[in-house]
Amino acid sequence: MDTLLTNQAGLDAFRTFLKSEFSEENVEFWLACEDFKKTESAENIVYKAKMIYSEFIEADAPKEINIDFSTRDLISKNIAEPTLKCFDEAQKLIYSLMAKDSFPRFLKSEIYKELVNSTRVGNNKKWLPFL
After folding, report:
1. Distance between CA atoms of residues 113 and 116, nearest Å
2. Using CA atoms, how far apart are residues 62 and 100, in angstroms rounded to an integer?
3. Residue whose C-alpha is closest to residue 28's, from 79, 62, 70
4. Taking the model in full, what pTM does it have?
5. How far apart are CA 91 and CA 85, in angstroms?
6. Which of 1, 55, 59, 72 is the most exposed place for a label (fewest CB within 10 A)?
7. pLDDT (tens digit, 9 = 90+) per residue, 19-60?
């Protein structure tokens, strides 16, 4: 699944699939965390952390992710002084959820089949590392 998340065609197809299952918040959160970890200025760390928190973590967030209470509570306590690692545990949980639940269903989906077919040129398959 790592390769899928770093391949634009694969990521686009996976996002489309997750939207069809009403669970696109998972990959959006994972991508937001990846972007967040690259943040360099302390000011931007605080800003981005609060954006991620309000969009994905807090109760009734517009794209609230499904994480356990203790992980959510720990993030809530640390959000006032966020670090680049403040979402790591939640990101691991969401990655695991996608890998064990969404990704296997994606591999059986019509969206995946269309992606595979679109990578064919004649009888040759274009290189997509996750196929």
Report:
1. 5
2. 24
3. 62
4. 0.86
5. 10
6. 59
7. 999 999 999 999 999 999 999 999 999 999 999 999 999 999
Q: How many CA atoms lie within 13 A of 32 on its CB side?
A: 25
Q: Taking the alpha carbons of 58, 105, 115, 38 in that order, is the dihedral positive or negative?
A: positive
Q: How many residues are given for the chain?
A: 131
Mapped onto helix, strand or coil, the DSSP state of residue 107 is helix
The letter for the amino acid at 64 is E
Q: Is 127 helix (H, G, I), strand (E, B) or coil?
A: coil
Largest Cα–Cα distance in the chain? 56
The DSSP code sequence of 55-66 is: IIISTT-TT---
Q: For strands 120-121 and 124-125, give the pairing.
A: antiparallel
User: If you search the block for the tokens 């943040």, which residue do you land on?
Assistant: 39
The one-character DSSP state at 101 is I
- In the DSSP assignment, the letter for residue 119 is T
Q: Are 57 and 64 spatial neighbours (Cβ–Cβ below 8 Å)? A: yes
